[in-house]
Amino acid sequence: MSAPFEERSGVVPCGTPWGRWYQTLEEVFIEVRVPPGTRAKDVRCSLGSRHIALAVRGQELLQGKLFDSTVTDEGTWTLEDRQLIRIVLMKTNRDAGNCWTSLLENEYAADPWVQDQMQRKLTLERFQRENPGFDFSGAEISGNYSKGGPDFSSLEK
């Protein structure tokens, strides 16, 4: 039996002025660096299905319309080591072809190389879920993997 796909293995982060974001088939992770010693009561975080707002000590760090929709009541944020806020958003569309090209509609876009690597990772994740008996840990993907790669679901097993 293969191990579940590890979202941090082969993470393809998109750097931003405040930290970074990355994604899996199901989730979008946002890591925001904050001043050391930040306390939870200093943080104001609002997570909607298509909107995010984050402020620390009254200073807005991140706000805008998300690239795609998320499941509102499954979004969470945590403060780690009093210096990093990690936000986890659950994608509404969990298809391998739903590779977010940016975090917000017009901000924090992945450059073309990073976008390509993100799509490769999501396609490998999809293949692993479709084929749980195979080990994809050392796999590389090439060819047509955009939009989630080829669809093999109609092939006879």
Automatic annotation (TrEMBL):
InterPro entries: CS_dom (IPR007052), HSP20-like_chaperone (IPR008978), NudC_fam (IPR037898), p23_NUDCD2 (IPR037902). It is found in: Chromosome, Centromere, Kinetochore; Cytoplasm, Cytoskeleton, Microtubule organizing center, Centrosome; Cytoplasm, Cytoskeleton, Spindle pole. Residues 14-104 form the CS domain. GO terms for cellular component: centrosome; cytoplasm; kinetochore; spindle pole. Pfam families: CS. GO terms for molecular function: unfolded protein binding. Keywords: Acetylation, Centromere, Chromosome, Cytoplasm, Cytoskeleton, Kinetochore, Phosphoprotein. GO terms for biological process: protein folding. Its main location: nucleus. Residues 138-157 are annotated as: Disordered. SUPFAM superfamilies: HSP20-like chaperones (SSF49764). Interacts with LIS1. May regulate the LIS1/dynein pathway by stabilizing LIS1 with Hsp90 chaperone. This is NudC domain-containing protein 2. The lineage of its organism: Eukaryota, Metazoa, Chordata, Craniata, Vertebrata.
